[in-house]
Write a structure and sequence with these properties.
The protein contains eight helices and eleven strands. It is α+β, with helices and mostly antiparallel strands.
């Protein structure tokens, strides 16, 4: 069964979980975690450390950028038993009210086109954190990070075309999520995905590697075949 702890997923911790997470940080950073706990804001699943045991999960808390644009990221590790809730990244409709007004109309159009094509697209990164916490994360140079989970090769192609079209008016960035929590930059896929022998940088939950486009398409199509409903005999 697929793990609920996919990169960019949102995780709410128990009181004990936050205490354990804070205990692993330097003293000068613990007050940030206490504030996260007080507001009941989620942590975010990050890449799993090589020495992380199976009964624990690696998370992160990213603070708003300072005046120089530097963003402090706090790495956490907690027992899975201390997780209260896990959910997928926010949807575009969730973040529109928290985006700059100049983005609203284009985001509404993007949301409508995604819904019309039946695509699974979430939002992570600065815009999502601003929506979740009410703090100021976005800067003039910020992107909109999208996480696209295509059901098959055709939907992948349609989604990339949609992103390319909307990227002409919105600063879109983000990833395509393949099976087994493996992800590729959608912009890199847009450039390399037409040739099966091209290689793309694949991010997994525990490592990063260069993988053939054709191998990823096979993985995606195999999942589509396995998930396709069958008629009873």
């Amino acid at each position: 069964m697929s793990s609920p702890y996919k990169r960019h997923s949102l995780v709410w911790l128990s009181e004990r979980g936050w205490q354990d997470a804070a205990a692993t940080l330097p003293d000068e950073h613990r007050h940030h975690v206490r504030r996260w706990r007080m507001h009941d804001w989620p942590a975010v699943v990050r890449r799993q450390d090589a020495d992380c045991p199976e009964d624990a999960i690696c998370l992160g808390v990213a603070l708003p950028p300072d005046t120089e644009g530097n963003k402090l990221r706090l790495p956490l590790r907690v027992a899975k038993t201390q997780v209260r809730m896990v959910r997928a990244p926010l949807e575009i409709a969730d973040v529109i009210p928290h985006a700059p007004l100049s983005w609203h109309a284009a985001l509404q159009q993007l949301h409508g086109d995604i819904a019309a094509q039946g695509l699974s697209v979430g939002v992570y990164g600065s815009l999502a954190l601003q929506a979740l916490t009410g703090q100021r994360y976005l800067r003039d140079s910020s992107d909109i990070d999208l996480l696209f989970r295509p059901s098959g090769e055709q939907q992948l192609t349609e989604g990339i075309r949609l992103f390319e079209r909307h990227a002409q008016v919105l600063p879109l960035d983000g990833e395509v999520a393949f099976p087994d929590d493996a992800a590729v930059s959608w912009k890199e896929w847009a450039q390399a995905g037409r040739r099966p022998d091209n290689r793309v940088l694949l991010k997994r939950s525990r490592d990063v590697s260069l993988v053939r486009v054709g191998d990823l398409l096979t993985m995606l199509n195999n999942r589509e075949t396995h998930e396709r409903p069958t008629c009873p005999a």
